[in-house]
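name: query_chain
kind: protein
chains: 1
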Amino acid sequence: MTGLTSSLRRDGYELHWRRAGTGGPLVLLHGITDSSACWDRVMAELSDEFDMVATDARGHGRSSRWPATMRNADMADDAAAVIREEFGAAVAVWGHSMGAATATLLAQRHPDLVSAVVLEDPPYAMTPPPPGAHGIPSEMRTAIVEMLRALREAPASERLALA
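structure:
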């Protein structure tokens, strides 16, 4: 499924995405080494239920290459810019792997733009990474620690809804 393609410039970088379907708004964030094309089957299957935008993160697909100074927060802010451009209001966000990490930061940094989050194979475990581990930015570690704290403290019956 190709869908309509769009782009915008943000901080000197071009961001591309595809849009397809009708219904409730849903943004799809892919994993590392992938692109919006990985969501073709999902977009085809859910096109009657959701108005979907599948992004090409910086350094992926048709978007500009990322600089050496790229931070995970930049990808979350890019996703926020796309949401503002396409929807102008809160949306559900589904992120896979790197996209799940981006979705986590997006919800933390722009809570007004996120109504629900689906994290598919997020790149973290039930214990937070130690400070400075494998170059994980401090803001991502903080978000992971906070998310895990909230999940641990929530009653089991509420964990799925919280996640």
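note: Helices lie at 40-46, 72-86, 98-109, 138-153, 156-162.
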